[in-house]
Design goal:
The protein is of the alpha/beta class. The chain folds into 2 domains: 194 residues, Spore Coat Polysaccharide Biosynthesis Protein SpsA, Chain A (Alpha-Beta Complex), CATH 3.90.550; 89 residues, no CATH class. Helices cover 45% and strands 18% of the residues. The chain is built from 11 helices and 9 strands. Strands 1, 2, 3, 4, 5, 6, 7, 8 and 9 form a 9-stranded mixed sheet that branches.
Length: 299
């Protein structure tokens, strides 16, 4: 039996601007049986000085790694808590989060993974908006990742049964893990309580790489599901067109460009255009053309 009830793992690399707030949000939970480990990838900013200030309450290592997923995997191997949380070095827990999660797991022994609500927060910890979440539904999870990673907790038996994160992934390693667990039969539960803050800012890895993120998600979906859902094909097309600076008020150009990209993406990942997407494209082009003609006639 582990001496720790809860293990929290923070992967870190050059996040000295935020990591102290992350650490403080974990230590402020004030629960017995907490194991907190920071796996740093060899930061060259003030991160290591900050980590030293929190010894021995925080155990840490700093060495070169293969990225975020590799760092989390190192943390999974070096911890022993029965409940696991993964909190990135720019995110935070809200007061009472770990107590709430531990109590939920204790009263629901059949649940393998629990996820709560979260906020998107800015660089100053101010709330931007609620993170979109839904009650548990595997089919919906294939279309949209409504689990906010810092607000997700899982039992160690999940790691023992399903393995660790896919270290080949750089953006959607969490989404892939939730799908892998769910498709394998892990039991998920939704806890409608705000547990964490997920930070959005201009240099955020995911926010700054939309096309690469969607490309990786589609590759992952093909591997995990055997095909890419229509919604992710469409999301990829919109990300590409947005990256090219084609604005939505250019209705005909935008509609034709998105449609062409949807066809390309469908053939690239699914080898065919689904009937549903074909109908959607026809509607987009018709609406775009109609809007363009109407504006010309009104001049």
């Amino acid at each position: 039996m582990s001496q720790f009830d809860v293990s929290v793992i923070t992967p870190s690399y050059n996040q000295g601007q935020f990591i102290e707030r992350t650490i403080q949000s974990v230590l402020a939970q004030e629960i017995d049986g907490l194991e907190y480990v920071v796996i740093d990838g060899g930061s060259t900013d003030e991160t290591l000085d900050i980590l030293r200030r929190y010894e021995p309450r925080v155990r840490w290592v700093s060495e070169k790694d293969e990225g975020q997923a590799d760092a989390v995997n190192k943390g999974l191997k070096s911890t022993s808590g029965e409940i696991i949380g993964w909190l990135n070095s720019d995110d935070i827990y809200y007061p009472g989060a770990l107590q709430t999660v531990r109590a939920f797991f204790q009263s629901h022994p059949d649940v393998d993974v629990v996820y709560g609500d979260a906020y998107h927060i800015d660089e100053a910890d101010e709330i931007i908006e609620p993170y979109y979440t839904e009650p548990w539904d595997l089919e919906r999870l294939k279309d949209i990742c409504y689990l906010c990673q810092p607000a997700v907790f899982f039992r160690r038996r999940v790691v023992e049964q399903f393995g660790m994160l896919d270290a080949q992934l750089h953006y959607c390693m969490d989404y892939e893990y939730w799908l892998r667990l769910a498709l394998g039969g892990a039991r998920f539960a939704y806890l409608p309580k705000v547990l964490a803050g997920s930070r959005l800012y201009e240099t955020n890895k995911t926010l700054g790489s939309r096309v690469a993120v969607h490309r990786e998600i589609n590759d992952m979906m093909l591997k995990r599901l055997g095909q890419v859902p229509d919604r992710w094909i469409s999301n990829y097309a919109h990300a590409v067109i947005d990256s090219k600076g084609i604005e939505r008020n250019q209705r005909l150009r935008f509609g034709v460009s998105v449609s062409a990209m949807v066809i390309y993406a469908s053939l690239r990942w699914n080898k065919k255009l689904s009937p549903n997407l074909a109908r959607t494209l026809a509607s987009w082009i018709s609406d775009s053309a109609h809007g363009t003609v109407k504006r010309v006639l009104q001049r």
